[in-house]
Design goal:
The structure is a single chain. This protein has helices at about 35-40, 60-75, 90-95, 110-115; strands at about 10-15, 20-30, 50-60, 80-85, 105. By secondary structure, it is α/β, with parallel strands linked by helices. Strand 2, helix 1 (about 35-40) and strand 3 form a beta-alpha-beta unit. Helix 1 (about 35-40) packs parallel to helix 2. The longest helix has 16 residues, at about 60-75. The protein is globular and about 30 Å long.
Length: about 120
């Protein structure tokens, strides 16, 4: 029987097309959310749009919803243009939680970057 590995999340910060891009892949849960929060919180106000690419996230728990809502709140407070692209798993959870309207969703990172330019 294969061993399942849970709680693995890779987070990468990039600067593309004048935007701050945070790319996350893997499981976004209680064990990994701090890694994502750190990357998102390190984006300085006035440094350009923030594009969060969650298209590689395979598991998205309620702590992920809370992290996104906090990021959206912070972005509004600091007038950061916050753009989000999601995997089907993330989109489903946002819809089930009734919070997808809190975010500007794009079908891909390239679409989000084109809008952020």
């Amino acid at each position: 029987m294969p061993t399942e590995v849970h709680g693995v999340l890779t987070v990468e910060r990039l600067r593309l097309a004048g935007a701050n891009v945070v790319v996350a892949s893997g499981d976004l849960d209680l064990a990994t959310v701090r890694r994502l929060r750190w990357a998102l919180d390190s984006v300085a106000p006035g440094s350009g749009p923030l594009v969060l690419d969650l298209s590689g996230v395979s598991f998205f728990g309620s702590v992920g919803v809370a992290a996104l809502l906090e990021t959206a709140r912070r972005a509004r407070a600091f007038r950061i243009d916050f753009r989000l692209t999601c995997s089907d798993a993330v989109t489903r959870v946002l819809e089930q939680a009734g919070v997808q309207g809190e975010f500007t969703l794009f079908e891909s990172r390239s679409h989000a970057l084109a809008h952020a330019e």
